[in-house]
């Protein structure tokens, strides 16, 4: 009997599930903390906790992660140099350390517009190779003819041996700027993706597990793990994609809205007839618009680990993530006593970091490039939690503004604080960690509000539920301002929204919010079994979906019945006869689709292929179409391998 192993590495937890191939039942599931900077420790911990006998019979492993997204959002990707071939783009802001525009490129037909300036490329590479870790290349109309991009890649590879990403390898859509940005971000993600994939492969192989390894993409499909190393940009938002697929698998719903309550954020997405809603435009991450197909979703920085803090009697939720007090008490033996002895904080000085329940502890990341103030403050934070009051006392003055935020951003310091997870512990709804620490924190924080500890925690729970409701309705009603939606969710009006499709909640504390959400919105709200590991389930539920599109155009309007150009992901071809061009395009698309499916472990006979053709011509046109798009889509289920 064979089993599938699903792994999801989130910002807070790494989850794993085992699914039996014969009936699709979940036979084991576990959670462990995601470990930084060594991800393999967290992966090892969660796999060690699974049934080892069943683990030996795994023949399919599929993973999803938010680590790529987090890396781009936090600006921790590797340094990259970008070479643009052809006309200088209108926009010159790129997420690259160095940018160079060289002569070359092609026209709309794929003919060479200008000879490639090889000398300029070589000089740029010589001047930057000691300062970067990867290169990105994007040519003007490179999707019409990638010849120059390929040539530049060969030059860089020969001169440096570094990773090189070309725009045409990632997208066949026009848009020189977006393709260049996508190539740069892809290059930035290669190191962290390699680290994550290598951690999974090393652990799986170390257990003598002989399995096909796949990775979930941001559109809900999967790809071979070797392909993930080449195109890691497609893993951004694979976490939300996993939650959507996992929710559908667990709830048996083909059409539903999904709210995934994570430690760091809450994500809302939707499934219609078993297919995720895909954004019409490319994914936007860290403010950069890409050419990556991704699911449509609504995300907010409110999660189970969002920091709850008080200022001027107002209770604030997030946006920053902290380690919950209840979790910290299990990691640091003396922390509960320190929390109970917490000093009074001046109300006038209170900010997000200066709180009666806020502490800081050193991480395992290596410090580098710090200024004098950062080095001084870091030296006062060790392996046991300390408060701002303690740091100020040792410093004999106030901590300079922005220093703690900078150390947290650089992951040198972990913040600890009161969270929604702590509030649920106080209310007795969720008791996985140290409830005494949560209660001590609630007492300390409530002193600075007009509420008692239970009222404080009830209010926090209501705030999180209202934020979930606002996220859901903002997704469903994208053209309505969030302020109006938030106002309608308040208690001011004798009315509430009605949602006609089921709403599925995922995440560890999801059962704590189903009734709260139902009181705000008229909808069927459900929390399926195994909701706490829904993303790991979704990693396995991804289908092998590949869409290939090839364009055919007449080479000249002067003779539109003969000589046709075919633009494909592998280059440009020329045919005298239109029928031959269409036949070539169709066969090439099928070949590329089947190659993809085979790399996912899906056999030809288990792949469903559909072929469609779209044409564009004037009304009075009596020749072959001015433009023809041949589209081939292949769909297969990797979990079929479990039934063999």
Biggest β-sheet: strands ordered side by side in the sheet: 3-2-1-4-9-10
Q: Which blocks of ≥5 consecutive residues have pLDDT under 50? A: none
Strand content: 15-25%
Which structural class should the secondary elements be placed in?
alpha/beta
Shape: globular
How many distinct helices?
A: 20
Any overview of this molecule?
It is a single chain. The chain is of the alpha/beta class. The protein has 20 helices and 28 strands. The strands form 7 sheets. Strands 3-2-1-4-9-10 form a 6-stranded mixed sheet, with helices on both faces. Helix 8 (238-251) packs across helix 19. The radius of gyration is 27 Å and the shape is globular.
Which features does this protein show?
644 residues, 28 strands, alpha/beta
Ordered list of secondary-structure elements with their pairings:
Layout lengths: L2 E7 L3 E8 L5 E8 L5 H10 L3 H4 L2 E8 L1 H8 L5 E6 L12 E5 L15 H11 L5 E6 L7 H14 L3 E3 L9 H31 L5 E5 L5 E3 H6 L7 H14 L4 E6 L4 E7 L2 E2 L7 E2 L2 E2 L8 E3 L5 E6 L2 E8 L1 E2 H7 L3 H6 L18 E4 L9 H7 L9 H8 L7 H7 L3 E5 L2 H7 L8 H12 L6 H24 L5 H7 L14 E4 L7 H7 L4 E2 L7 H8 L2 E11 L9 E5 L2 E5 L2 H22 L8 E9 L10 E10 L8
Parallel strand pairs: 1-4, 4-9, 5-6, 5-7, 7-8, 11-22, 19-21, 22-23
Antiparallel strand pairs: 1-2, 2-3, 9-10, 11-12, 12-13, 12-16, 14-15, 17-18, 20-21, 24-25, 24-28, 25-26, 27-28
Helix pairs in contact: 1-6, 3-6, 4-5, 8-19, 9-15, 11-13, 14-15, 14-16, 15-16
In short:
This protein is 34% helix and 24% strand. It is an alpha/beta fold and 644 residues long.
């Amino acid at each position: 009997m064979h089993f599938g192993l699903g792994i999801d590495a989130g910002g807070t937890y790494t989850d794993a599930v085992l699914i039996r191939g014969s009936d699709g039942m979940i036979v084991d599931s576990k959670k462990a903390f995601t470990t930084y900077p060594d991800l393999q420790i967290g992966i090892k911990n969660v796999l060690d906790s699974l049934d080892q006998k069943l683990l030996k019979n795994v023949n399919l492993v599929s993973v999803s992660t938010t680590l790529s997204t987090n890396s781009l959002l936090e600006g921790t990707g590797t340094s990259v140099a970008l070479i643009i071939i052809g006309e200088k783009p209108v926009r010159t802001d790129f997420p690259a350390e160095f940018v160079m525009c060289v002569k070359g490129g092609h026209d709309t037909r794929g003919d060479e517009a200008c000879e490639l300036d090889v000398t300029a490329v070589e000089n740029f590479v010589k001047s930057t190779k000691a300062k970067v870790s990867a290169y990105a290349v994007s040519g003007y109309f490179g999707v019409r003819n990638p010849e120059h991009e390929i040539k530049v890649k060969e030059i860089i590879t020969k001169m440096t041996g570094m990773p090189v990403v070309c725009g045409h390898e990632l997208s066949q859509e026009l848009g020189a700027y977006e393709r260049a940005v996508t190539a740069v971000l892809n290059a930035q993600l290669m190191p962290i993706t390699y680290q994550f994939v290598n951690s999974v492969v090393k652990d799986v192989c170390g257990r003598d597990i002989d399995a096909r390894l796949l990775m979930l993409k941001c559109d809900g499909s999967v790809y071979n793990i070797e392909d993930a190393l080449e195109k890691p940009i497609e893993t951004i938002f694979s976490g939300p994609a996993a939650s959507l697929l996992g929710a559908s698998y667990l709830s048996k719903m083909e059409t539903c809205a999904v709210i995934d309550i994570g430690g760091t954020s809450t994500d809302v997405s939707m499934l219609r007839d078993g297919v995720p809603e895909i954004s019409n435009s490319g994914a936007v991450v860290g403010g950069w618009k890409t050419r990556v197909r991704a699911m449509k979703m609504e995300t907010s920085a409110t999660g189970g680990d969002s920091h709850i803090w008080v200022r001027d009697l107002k209770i604030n939720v997030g946006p920053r993530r902290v380690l919950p007090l209840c979790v910290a008490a299990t990691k640091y033996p003396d922390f509960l006593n320190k929390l109970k002895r917490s000093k009074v904080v001046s109300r006038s000085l209170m900010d997000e970091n200066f709180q009666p329940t806020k502490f800081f502890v050193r991480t395992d990341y290596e410090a580098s490039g710090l200024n004098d103030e950062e080095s001084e403050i870091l030296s006062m934070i060790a392996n046991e939690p300390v408060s701002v009051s303690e740091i100020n006392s040792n410093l004999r003055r106030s901590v300079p503004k922005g220093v703690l935020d900078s150390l947290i951003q650089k992951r040198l310091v972990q913040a600890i604080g009161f969270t929604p997870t702590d509030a649920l512990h106080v209310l007795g709804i969720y008791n996985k960690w140290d409830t005494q620490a949560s209660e001590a924190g609630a007492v300390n924080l409530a002193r600075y509000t007009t509420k008692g500890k239970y009222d404080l925690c009830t209010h926090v729970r209501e705030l999180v539920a209202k934020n979930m409701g606002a996220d859901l309705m903002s997704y469903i009603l994208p053209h309505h301002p969030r302020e109006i939606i938030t106002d309608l969710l308040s208690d001011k009006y004798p009315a509430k929204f009605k949602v006609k499709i089921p709403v599925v909640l995922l995440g560890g504390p999801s059962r704590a919010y189903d009734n709260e959400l139902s009181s705000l919105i008229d909808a069927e709200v459900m929390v399926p079994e195994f909701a706490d590991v829904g993303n790991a389930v979704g990693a396995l539920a991804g289908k092998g979906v590949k869409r290939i599109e090839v364009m055919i155009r007449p080479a000249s309007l002067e003779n539109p019945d003969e000589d046709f150009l075919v633009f494909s992901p592998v280059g440009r071809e020329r045919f005298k006869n239109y029928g031959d061009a269409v036949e070539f395009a169709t066969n090439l698309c099928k070949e590329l689709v089947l190659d993809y499916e085979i790399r996912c472990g899906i056999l030809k006979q288990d792949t469903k292929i559909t072929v469609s053709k779209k044409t564009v011509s004037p009304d009075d046109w009596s020749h072959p179409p001015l433009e023809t798009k041949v589209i081939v889509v292949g769909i297969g289920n990797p979990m079929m391998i479990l039934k063999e």
